[in-house]
């Protein structure tokens, strides 16, 4: 199992936020439709809350029959949670009082803070100060509140809260409220949510904290999160690592996969959205199941609630229509999943249950006996679900057949009650008749289309495979650098400096020397012998070829001419550049393959490595792979294998296998170096020469950008 | 506009099938729940049919108050349609009688034919004979019937028919019935179907005939088709070309995109499924909008009913939740579509209507004024929809807010009534409250998720772009070869024969000569001069390199040795091969780029060309493009541009531009040659050498497989 060796972040204990013993409502009111009244109603009337509730409102003596206090200072004792619904102007003072008397959490529903204007930004900064000074932790502001459906308790003004009360094992962490409510409303088809945080501006507590809390909560089995932007990527990664350690899948949707989304999300939540590629890299590395839409998030979470996958599930398709059987099987194939082959025992049971004209191999088509002979249908389904090779049964239902569909739904439920293998109906019809509701109520979580099935099932199985791989080798994601890339002056190391730094860190580089004169060049070339590369060294020149500053294949005989030529070219192209001399180094043997290794600082997730083969593979096919640092040699081997062009390294068309061990070692050394170099903004080692087995891998060029 | 120059197929006139004046029901019955009774009920009670109905049943005098005839021969006059619901054993005789008295169409619902067993296959073959002999056209057998919802008339036994009666502009052609009913049930959200054919085994009439009919029917604007397998691919292509000519989009879903689906569909419908890649090629070439699932087919068809796209629509997002605005905009970006920039007039109207804290640029977030100030919401929406830059307005609605959602829905409808630009709501919630039904009834065709929106909208816009391109240059899809690739003996031409055939067709090839002896080789090499390629010629050897049968870069000096070496190598590796000699030809100049051109015979769609650059581009990145023949030089240019690696031909990293004109001309000549060579099974020209501009393109090797 996963170990808990890695715990670099201290997360707050949020037990009393989600399950308070006492709640203050600042701004409680009896005025119909007011936020203060809606919040009170939800806590007092619609929740099953057994603790104390203290309304605060200077203009009233009591609210909903409860003694009302003029201000927080007058409360008889501190409360676990203070719900704040007064206008923005009074929020700081109220929270300060609450902090002073020792309240633990403030849930600030009020809007008009950093999302609104400069005044709001300043007030929000004050809230952070108050929190740091008094220890009160802040949820919000600018949010619809917090919901614990397992109690149930809704600290929210949402008029929809009362309609969506049912307990469940799914925890949901969102930022805005609207899309969270969208997912909660999937309770219509049986999705069971237990906790929902919707943390708005996140001036203090953030998605990462809620994910971490849900990872601890024994009633939560699966965590969903919808993120518009991260306040602290490293903290999020640590929370996901904790969820993984506890065997709880995190299913994530991140807004900002296109420019439009990134821009809109940034303006909506004032968070840093980061790069979609890096985000996907991080999700994959942490085992966060990245999904494509809200309904898919719920689909996948519901499947996890049914059963945790092993990663090698084979699928049975059980249909009563030839078309549905075909199209469903088609989608299983398109997902790259495997249809189970039935055992002879199953085949015998099917042959006994079904008429001769039914299709008894996988995908099963029972034909219309689903209507005419429900018992036979049930017996055939039971046989299919009991097959030792079947890891999950799909039951596509193409249309609403009224009462017949109800009978089918009851058969599915009856068989499911007797087996452990999940039976997953796909209610393909737009018409949601009673059969559909029967399936939803039975906890069978009907999927809504074959395409949705295809995507959800693939992700479910993939997570099982990911977990299985982690069991033997857990690689903690340590993000030591936090959010890098802050603005500031930078300096680009020259190639000599860069290579010296890399060499000191154990990265194989060519051993260059620098010539200040043509005579130097001849002397150095003579000592090195063989074919040489000669390149200009200047702090102002990064793209050396563009100014005629590179010559390859020179020898001692041509070194003087080459030196003079480089100096002449560069003087002409860049008259103002300071020239430090001409670098001379032995050329790598011919026949190598060129790769590149880059490290950049993502504003959200810190140092990330990009690796690939150079030139066309990147530029035309975007054939690269990425990882958060640190990267071990074993991880580097995985990265190499992930390239579509990996076969070029492993012996394409009779060519020799490349020195993969050396390449992986080089990648790991670069990772170590990047981690150990705090001021590193960016580095680009391009090309890395990769020889055949035993020949090694060498950094031929390196550009390093550091803080000035 | 598209011309009607191309009409190689004669399609039957199906007017009297879809709109008969008289109907016979063979097997009409009053027995409750019998197929004969259900069919009669649908025609007599649930349809608006005004013509004559003749029940036929030897055991009854009248059925449902109508005079019943003992057999078809006793009918007073021939009918337009004969609906057959008697058991399979009597079908042939009944249809034969119907044909003899001059009935036009037989709709055979009965099962137990080619889908069942050998007896059924023989009976179905008899039906085909009867049809050919008497001229009666056959629909089915083994199908749920035919539905004309615009009359309405249901010649079907489906008990669901009566629940789905509403007219509409969408025609739907399926094979099985279950999945068709699934799509019809999207009438729940306002999808309006007018015709539905579901043609089962298709022993005579097939999907292509129905597509063609719907292309003629003035009440049909859009055609959907779900195909498990094609009876005649060329016919289908011709029908789609006719629909395109008449400006009616065809939206298609083809089962068999994975091995599982292909196998299941083949066993379900006994059709040839063909290759998914070729199918997608054909769809794209014919402008058939290929979709990924049933609900997507309906989504796209509904958008076409709203408005025909121009291809350059810019999108507005109009939301009342910041999260929904962000995620919706994100999906617009992910679809590669453009968010409209509002005119200053629109901005002024929005600023007047909305509060200052709303987001007034695209994506619009009205905030909760959608609830508090419905008039302002409506005015803002009207401003947005009236903007000159906006081609379509998306209105994502993340949750069901009960009566508030109804008010919003009514606002959408009210604004839509005044503008031409489609306003498309996205009902994202699983809960389908009254607001949802209001939208559906208003004809606004709510989409069901952002992902569905992303896919449907992209396809809608793409179709507009395709049509716009066709307006200037319509390329008819002529499939002269029909279904090729029938089994039979084949013969592989040797390289000399192949190149001679290509040269005769105007394809540039190297001019090889053949040496029978080492002395020959020296003489030929001397005459040719320069660097030479030498290759074994043998009818048994296709992969010449594998047996040491190829030597490159030889000269007159090395020709003897090379000849002897090739003969020795081949004798050792393939002692039994007949050797025709050694081919000698000048080598192409160095520095060319290698492409390949292949033509294969798809069992469904006939000759298809595959083009790409060789080696790694195909093998690792599957970077190829395909077209049905014939291919003009202009089409070939498009194909070249479609490659991901196209930049290698157009001057990558300062390399010279390649001779694209010559390459395109070569492709077009190969197409001409393939079309003019009836016995051609397959050809593979690999490599094609492509020089720089002016240097030409030359077929360096060619393998042609022809019928023996």
TrEMBL record, chains A, B:
The keyword Ribosomal protein does not apply. SUPFAM superfamilies: Glutathione synthetase ATP-binding domain-like (SSF56059), NAD(P)-binding Rossmann-fold domains (SSF51735), Succinyl-CoA synthetase domains (SSF52210). Residues 17-113 form the CoA-binding domain. SMART domains: CoA_binding. InterPro entries: Acyl-CoA_Synth/Transferase, ATP_grasp_subdomain_1, CoA-bd, NAD(P)-bd_dom_sf, Succ_CoA_lig_flav_dom, Succinyl-CoA_synth-like. GO terms for biological process: tricarboxylic acid cycle. GO terms for molecular function: ATP binding; ligase activity. It comes from Pseudosulfitobacter pseudonitzschiae. Pfam families: ATP-grasp_5 (PF13549), CoA_binding_2 (PF13380), Succ_CoA_lig (PF13607). PANTHER family: 3-HYDROXYPROPIONATE--COA LIGASE [ADP-FORMING], ACETATE--COA LIGASE [ADP-FORMING]. In the N-terminal section; belongs to the acetate CoA ligase alpha subunit family. This is Succinyl-CoA synthetase subunit alpha. Keywords: ATP-binding, Ligase, Nucleotide-binding, Plasmid, Tricarboxylic acid cycle.
């Amino acid at each position: 199992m996963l170990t808990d060796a890695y715990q670099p972040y201290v997360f707050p204990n949020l037990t009393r936020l989600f399950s308070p013993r006492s709640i203050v409502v600042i701004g409680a009111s009896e005025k119909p439709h007011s936020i203060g009244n809606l919040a009170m109603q939800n806590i007092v009337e619609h929740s099953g809350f057994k603790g104390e509730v203290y309304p605060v409102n200077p203009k009233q003596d009591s609210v909903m029959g409860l003694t009302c206090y003029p201000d927080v200072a007058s409360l008889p004792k501190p409360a676990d949670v203070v719900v704040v619904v007064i206008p923005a102007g009074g929020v700081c003072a109220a929270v300060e009082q609450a902090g002073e008397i020792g309240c633990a959490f403030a849930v600030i529903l009020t809007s008009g803070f950093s999302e609104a204007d400069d005044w709001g930004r300043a007030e929000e900064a004050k809230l952070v100060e108050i929190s740091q000074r008094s220890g009160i932790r802040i949820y919000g502001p600018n949010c619809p509140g917090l919901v614990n459906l397992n109690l149930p308790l809704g600290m929210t003004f949402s008029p929809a809260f009362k309609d969506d009360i049912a307990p469940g094992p799914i925890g949901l962490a969102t930022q805005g409220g609207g899309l969270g409510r969208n997912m909660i409303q999937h309770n219509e088809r049986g999705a069971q949510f237990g906790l929902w945080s919707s943390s708005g501006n996140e001036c203090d507590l953030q998605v990462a904290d809620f994910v971490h809390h849900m990872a601890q909560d024994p009633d939560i089995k699966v965590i969903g999160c919808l993120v518009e932007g991260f306040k602290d990527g490293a903290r999020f990664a640590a929370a996901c690592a904790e969820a993984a350690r506890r065997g709880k899948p995190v299913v994530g949707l991140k807004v900002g996969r296109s420019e439009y989304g990134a821009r809109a999300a940034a303006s909506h939540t004032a968070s840093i959205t980061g790069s979609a590629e890096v985000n996907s890299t991080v999700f994959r590395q942490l085992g966060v199941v990245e999904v494509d839409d809200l309904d898919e998030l719920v689909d996948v979470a519901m499947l996890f609630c049914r059963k945790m996958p092993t990663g090698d599930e084979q699928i049975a398709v059980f249909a009563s229509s030839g078309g549905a059987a075909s199209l469903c099987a088609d989608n299983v194939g398109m997902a790259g999943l495997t249809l189970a082959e039935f055992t002879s025992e199953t085949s015998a049971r099917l042959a006994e249950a079904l008429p001769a004209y039914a299709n008894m191999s996988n995908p099963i088509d029972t034909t219309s006996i689903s209507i005419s002979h429900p018992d036979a249908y049930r017996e055939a389904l039971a046989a299919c679900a009991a097959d030792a090779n079947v890891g999950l049964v799909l039951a596509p239902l193409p249309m609403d057949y009224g009462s017949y569909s109800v009978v089918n739904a009851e058969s599915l439920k009856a068989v499911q009650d007797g087996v452990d293998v999940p039976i997953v109906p796909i209610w393909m019809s737009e018409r949601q008749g009673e059969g559909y509701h029967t399936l939803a109520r039975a906890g069978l979580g009907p999927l809504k289309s074959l395409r949705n099935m295809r995507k959800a099932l693939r992700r479910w199985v993939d997570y099982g495979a990911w977990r299985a791989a982690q069991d033997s080798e857990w690689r903690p994601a340590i993000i030591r650098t936090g959010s890098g890339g802050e603005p500031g002056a930078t300096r680009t190391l020259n190639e000599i400096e860069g290579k010296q730094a890399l060499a000191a860190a154990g990265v194989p580089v060519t051993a260059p020397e620098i010539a200040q004169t043509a005579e130097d060049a001849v002397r150095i070339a003579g000592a090195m012998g063989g074919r040489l590369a000669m390149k200009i060294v200047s702090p102002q020149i990064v793209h050396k070829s563009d100014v005629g500053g590179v010559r390859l294949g020179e020898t001692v005989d041509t070194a003087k001419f080459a030196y003079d030529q480089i100096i002449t070219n560069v003087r002409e192209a860049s008259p103002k550049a300071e020239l430090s001399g001409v670098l001379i180094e032995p050329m790598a043997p011919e026949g190598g393959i060129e790769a590149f290794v880059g490290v950049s600082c993502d504003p959200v997730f810190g140092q990330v490595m990009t690796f690939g083969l150079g030139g066309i593979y990147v530029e035309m096919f975007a054939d690269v792979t990425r990882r958060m640092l640190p990267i071990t040699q074993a991880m580097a081997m995985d990265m190499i294998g992930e390239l579509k062009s990996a076969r070029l390294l492993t012996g394409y068309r009779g060519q020799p296998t490349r020195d993969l061990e050396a390449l992986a070692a080089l990648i790991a050394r670069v990772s170590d170096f990047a981690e150990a170099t705090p001021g590193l903004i960016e580095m680009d080692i391009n090309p890395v020469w990769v020889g055949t087995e035993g020949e090694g891998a060498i950094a031929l060029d390196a550009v390093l950008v550091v803080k000035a």
